[in-house]
Amino acid sequence: MLVFIIRRLLQAVLVMLVVSLLAFILFRYIGDPVTIMLGQDATDADRAALRQSLGLDQSAFVQFIRFVGQAVQGDFGLSLRQGQSVGELLKSRLPATVELSVVAACLALFIGLPLGIYTALRRNGLGAQAVLAFSLLGISLPTFLIGILLILIFSVQLGWLPSYGRGAVVHFGWWTSGLLTWDGLKHLILPAITLSLFQLTLILRLVRSEMLEVLRSDYIKFARARGLSQRAIHFGHALKNTLVPVITITGLQLGGIIAFAIVTETVFQWPGMGLLFIQAVQFADVPVMAAYLCLIALVFVIINLIVDLLYFVVDPRLRVGLGKAGGH
Q1: For residue 191, what pLDDT band results from cuts at 50, 70 and 90?
Q2: In sequence order, which ranges of 30-85 are alpha helices (DSSP H)?
Q3: Which pLDDT tens digit goes with each residue over 238-289?
Q4: Rounded distance, CA 105 to CA 320, Å?
Q5: What pTM did the predictor assign?
Q6: For 121-208, where are the E strands, in sequence order?
Q7: Which among 205, 212, 206, 203 is positioned nearest to 121, based on CA atoms?
Q8: Are 234 and 273 in contact (CB under 8 A)?
Q9: Is the CA virtual torsion 50, 54, 56, 59 positive or negative?
Q10: CA 193/CA 147 separation, integer angstroms
Q11: Which domains does the chain possess?
Q12: N or C terminus: fewer CB in 10 A for the chain?
C-alpha cells in the first residue's frame, strides 16, 4: 500500500512539473508583461529596470526554476490588471468557488445516485422512464443556457431568487461562507443547480447502466438461488460492485465542477476563481491565468489520488491483488 501511494505521489509530482512548464510558457511567451505594466510610452531605461526587477533578463531555465520555486510557495507574482498579489486574489476568491462546487457536487451525488438505483430497479416503470426523459435535458442543454432559463423563470418572472452575486456571507478569518445566512443560501440555489445538473444526470445514467449490468451477472443469479432477499441482493451485492466505476466518474466530475465552474460563475456573476479567470483572459492577465492553471491541475491530482485510495475501500479484489504483487 505504501509503495502504491509513493508511486502515485511521484506521478503527481511529474504531472505538476509538466503543468508548471505549460504555465511558465504561458507566463513567458504570451504578451509582454513589461509593456502591459508600463504602457507604450515608457522609456527604454524604465523597461530595462522593470525587466531586471522581474528577472526577465535571465535565461529561460533559471526563470523556470524560479517560477516553480515561487509556485510551490504560492507566489505567482502580481496581477497585471489589478496590481495585487495573485495568491491573495485567488485566496479571496477560493471560498466562493469551493462553496459552490461542493454544494453542486453534493446535489449531483445525493440526487443522482438514488435516482440511478431507482431507474435500474424499476426500469420498466413510468416513474423511471420519466426520470430518464428528464435526464436528457441535463445532458443535452449547455450549462449557460440552463442558467439563463433558471434566471428567466425564478428571478425575472417569479421573482423568488436573486440572479447574480453571492449575497451576505459570514467571515471565519479569511474564509467566507454564505451557507449560514438566508440571503447567501438564496443566492446559492440557482448557480448550484445549474452547475450540478449535468453531473447529476451523468451519475444517474452511469449508476443505472452499471447497476443493470451487475444485476445480470452470474453471482447475482447465484445469490438469488441461495434465497437471499431482494434488498440484500440489490444493496448488499449489486450496489457495492456498482460503486467502483461511479467513484471514478464522481471524483473526476468533482474536479471538473471546480475547473469548469467558469461558465456558471460568469452567468451568475459569482465572485469565484472562474470569474477571475475569465476577467484575466479578457485583459491578458497572464500571472492569474498561469496560477489558475496550476491550481486546477493540483485539484485534479489530489482528487485522482483520493479516488485511487477509495478503490481499496470499496473493492477488496484490489487489496488482494496488491498484496500478491507486494509478495512477489
Answers
A1: very high
A2: 33-38, 44-54, 60-72
A3: 666 667 777 777 777 777 777 778 888 888 988 888 888 888 877 767 778 8
A4: 31
A5: 0.75
A6: 170-172, 175-177
A7: 212
A8: no
A9: positive
A10: 9
A11: 8-52+284-328 (no CATH), 92-282 (1.10.3720.10)
A12: C
Cβ(27)–Cβ(79) under 8 Å? no
Residue 197: all three cell numbers together:
445538473
CA–CA distance, 153 with 163 (Å, rounded to integer):
10
Enter the C-alpha cell of residue 150.
Answer: 433558471
What is the C-alpha radius of gyration for the chain, rounded to an integer number of angstroms? 24
**Which of 75, 58, 43, 137 is CA-nearest to residue 287?**
75
Burial of 92 (0-12, 13-18, 19+ CB in 10 A): middle
Euclidean distance between CA atoms 154 and 134, whole angstroms: 19
Helices 86-121 and 273-282 cross at an angle (nearest 10°) of 120
85 secondary structure, DSSP code: B
- Show the beta-strand stretches assigned E in the chain: 170-172, 175-177
Neighbours of 38 (CB within 10 A): 16
Name 81's Cβ contacts closer than 8 Å, sequence gap at least 6: 279, 280, 283, 285, 288
